[in-house]
Design brief:
The protein has seven helices and eleven strands. By secondary structure, the chain is α+β, with helices and mostly antiparallel strands.
Length: about 260
Amino acid sequence: MNPAFSATLLSRVEDAGLNASAPPQQRWVDGWLVRFSAGKAKRARCVNAVAAGRMPVSERLAACEQVYADAGLPMIVRITPFTLPSGLDEELVAQGFQRFDDTRVMVRADLGTAAALALPAGATLLSVGLDAFAQTVGTFRGSPLAQRQAHAERLLNAPVPFSAFELRIDGQPASCGQMAAEGGLVGLYDVFTEPAFRGQGLARVLCSQLLAQARAGGAQHSYLQVEGDNHAARSVYHRLGFTDGYAYHYRARDPAAA
């Protein structure tokens, strides 16, 4: 964890991220939050080991693997600085689980100066429904229909409110993103620019507009999650005032299947 941020704030960010990614398909296994959505987001189809529990780790892992086998999904375990027990990562290594998708949680601790960048010529920013947003970002990503439907289901049933937006150029969807608000925190999610419109700074403009709206609505801090090797996106977020707060990664027996 980055010592420049308070541990309390980063813990709140982790909780907010879990709340924002909650799918209907989840259950508890001895202190571990086990999620098994059929969607694309790994946060919604992985084990989050958030409590020490009482069962031996090997027994809990076996119980979780059965949950995923019943759901027809590979088991993925998410490892964060908050993971319990603290030796879980080493236990997974010993059992042959491979590490993949190193991710950074970036934080902007103060939204007091968040200002919206001007929209480019021909651009409009529209608020859209969550189901429509899932279809738009799924189309941008080339996601299959089942993943789009699972994404929409998760957003519509989320325990925290989401607001979704499209940035259109001459009426055509060019970039999109959404935010989840909770207790003075706002998370940016699913920021994506259609390939034909990349290189124009649209993602930065879009995020600045969302942050300004969040500040006006009372948000004090913001966070987002981005893959560690996505240098282009991380550069955009750095320019928007975000800094790495902490890192997490996933483990699975076969990352390719995950």
